[in-house]
Design brief:
alpha+beta; single chain; 3-stranded antiparallel β-sheet
Length: about 300
């Protein structure tokens, strides 16, 4: 680590701290993600190994943050692992707070052109992950990095990522920050697939348009109730098998509200895309590949991407 000069802490999450640093050998500004663990009791943390292996698989896409290297330091019976990443000057949460803030309303000051660009890049990155058999499982604005000057968006933080296969295995339901967690996961389904990432993409889409979260629950129950109040309480007709999910109960029976009232700045094509991202039935939820072909993106110059 003598090769790097730390310039300050830029973030801290569940699995470690992130620092802005300068590579003394090249002068390049990088991001250092540190994870400290006890050698004797834990070994190399699974989240570190998983993130490294998944990033190696996904590294060829410009919409995935680039891993530049791995460093480790031994100190008094402990190892400090540092993942060295390309530096991005903000995450999407900070970007929205600075550039899209319109407090007290359901609208954003971000231009629709910028929203379309970020959403297209996000779908490109998610499609790349899914094409290579990887579920991210923790998509949220804080895990999407932004180059403000170039308008680039890249997916980061694969600590909860997972390679998947067909037929689907049973996975943990302790995934995805609550506000972006798909209803099938909230209801206890452990055989979920790529559709859980697409639900999160829908929540991020709405947040870009509103400058605030769409479903800001503070518990799993409240999260479900927020979802049901807007989209209507799901039925067996709309979502076959929902009543058999482990955590299904007799919830209040709401009818779907007008989603346009929640995101008034979106045109009909935007509402259509958002509605297809936020479908209850995971098998009918739009895929990242299909989303890229949605008419909402027709006005974009796709040659730039």
């Amino acid at each position: 680590m003598d090769n790097y000069e730390k310039l300050g802490k830029i973030g801290e999450g569940t699995y470690g701290k992130v620092y802005k640093a300068r590579d003394k050998r090249t002068g390049r500004i990088v991001a250092l993600k540190k994870s400290r663990i006890e050698i004797e009791t834990q070994g190399v943390p699974s989240t570190v190994l998983r993130e490294i292996s998944l990033l190696q698989v996904l590294s060829q896409s410009i919409y995935i943050v680039k891993l530049l290297g791995v460093e480790q330091i031994h100190r008094r019976g402990k190892i400090e692992f540092y993942l060295v990443f390309e530096y991005m000057d903000a995450d999407l949460k900070k970007y929205i707070d600075i550039n899209g803030c319109n407090r007290g309303t359901a609208s954003s000051t971000l231009s629709i052109k910028r929203i379309k660009s970020f959403m297209y890049q996000l779908c490109k990155g998610v499609a790349h992950c899914h094409r290579h058999g990887v579920l991210h499982r923790d998509l949220k604005p804080q895990n999407l990095l932004i180059d403000s000057e170039k308008g680039l968006l890249k997916i980061a933080d694969f600590g909860l990522g997972r390679a998947f296969s067909v037929p689907l295995k049973s996975y943990t339901h302790e995934i995805v920050t609550l506000w972006y967690r798909a209803p099938e996961v909230l209801l206890g389904d452990t055989h979920y697939s790529t559709s859980v990432d697409m639900w999160a993409v829908g929540c991020i889409f709405a947040e870009l348009c509103r400058s605030r979260p769409l479903f800001p629950g503070d518990s799993e129950l409240q999260q479900l109730l927020y979802i049901f109040e807007l989209l209507g309480t799901p039925t067996e007709d709309a979502w076959p098998g929902v009543y058999k999910l482990r955590d299904w109960h007799d919830y209040p029976e709401w009818k779907s509200a007008d989603i346009h009232e929640a995101v008034p700045d979106l045109d009909d094509m935007g509402i259509n895309l958002l509605s297809n991202l936020l479908l209850f039935n995971p098998s009918r939820r739009i895929s990242a590949k299909a989303a890229l072909q949605h008419p909402f993106f027709d006005e974009l110059d796709k040659s730039q991407y």
